[in-house]
Amino acid sequence: MPRFEDDEYADYGVRTKNRADGAAKTRRKARKPVKRGSVSEIVWDDRAAARPTSTTRFADPDMQRLFDRGYFDTLVGPLRGGKEAMVYVVKRGDLGLVAKLYTDRALRAFQNDAGYWAGYWVDDVRVAKAMRQGSRAGQRAKQGLWVFREYQTLWRLHEAGLPVPRPAVGPDVSDMGEAGSVVLMELVGDGDEPAPRLSDVRLLTDEARGAWEQAVAIYVRLAELGLAHGDLSTYNLLWHLGRVWLIDVPQAVEVAASPGGVALLRRDLESMATSFRRLGHVGDTAAVERRALAAAKAARGM
After folding, report:
1. 72 with 92: CB under 8 angstroms?
2. In this structure, how many other beta carbons lie within 10 angstroms of the beta carbon of residue 189?
3. 135 and 168: one domain?
4. Does the bond joining 171 to the residue before it have cis omega, within 30 degrees of 0?
5. What is the distance between the alpha carbons of residues 161 and 199, in angstroms, rounded to a whole number?
6. Helices (DSSP H) in the chain: which residue ranges?
């Protein structure tokens, strides 16, 4: 079962009463939700105020922190925006990276995420209660943990050999905590030109069949690891040089730990098959479902 230990919460902006004398006063002050959108909203505007330091490049504190620590040195530009996050292309030297900036939960369209938290164990009972109640502290905890979950899952899948972008922060918990609301990862593509999503390409018949077979292999491998992606479709798969890559994994759940884990596993296959029909390929889902359920059951017994 996924766990997040009590002593690690401070790294994610979650403070309990005995951790900092001045934290309570800080929390009482209402904070305007932050929405990261265009480049102008995250870079420092010299017309609005003088730069606090000579190295200040970003108005967004999480991007500035990663910049200061050398995780990237150049902002190339925006890639895409969505209901959950804004994605930018950045570079460290010649290495292309992607910076995924999550919006504040108060502004996120995808807030009905209870099913993705079921079975996720939080040791600190006060933080867990705040998350259930939806208080400001609970919302901040969820925001930090959501980003942590994406890093955690990306590292797990990368180390298991699945085709996912390699995280550029971690795997140490303290390093991932410094990322704030930013998931920084390898750019899948050529140079600073990102690969397209499968939903955005047109494939020949043989290419579509091959892409389906690769997607099925990813889906079954997730089940072998005891996981359901939770939002699997061609919108969360990239296509690069004839290879399928999996992205957007923060909502992945442990099938055995989540009450709705098996339902999510089935839903993933259904949504993946539906989205592949738009590419002109109709896959045999019955046999695939049997393989995935058997794999998930075997993973539970490990």
Report:
1. yes
2. 18
3. yes
4. yes
5. 24
6. 23-28, 61-68, 114-117, 125-133, 136-159, 173-177, 205-224, 261-277, 285-300
Closest CA to 214 of 250, 240, 195, 251: 240
- CA gap 182, 210 in Å, rounded: 33
Between β-strands 74-81 and 85-92, what pairing exists: parallel, antiparallel or unpaired?
A: antiparallel
The verdict on 113 and 33 lying in the same domain is yes
Name the burial class of residue 80, with classes exposed (0-12), middle (13-18) and buried (19+) by CB atoms within 10 angstroms of its CB.
middle
Looking at the DSSP bridge assignments, the partners of residue 245 are 238
Same-domain status, 121 and 7: yes
Helix (H) and strand (E) counts in the chain = 9, 12
- The closest alpha carbon to 252, from 283, 285, 219, belongs to 219
Q: What share of the chain is helix, strand, coil (3-state, %, to 5)?
A: 40, 20, 40
Q: What average pLDDT does range 138-151 have in this prediction?
A: 79
Between 21 and 77, where is the model more confident? 77
Residue 3 in contact with residue 121, Cβ under 8 Å? yes
- Domain hosting 22: range is 3-189
The pLDDT tens digits for 228-255 are 999 999 999 999 999 999 999 999 999 9
User: Is the separation of the CB atoms in 215 and 237 below 8 Å?
Assistant: yes
Helix (H) or strand (E) holding 183: strand 182-186
Half-sphere exposure of 151 (CA within 13 A, CB side): 27
Q: Per mean pLDDT, which range of 16-20, 28-32, 77-81 is the poorest?
A: 16-20
Whether residues 91 and 220 share a domain: the answer is: no
Q: How many domains does the chain have?
A: 2
pLDDT digits over 102-120, tens only? 887 544 544 566 666 666 6
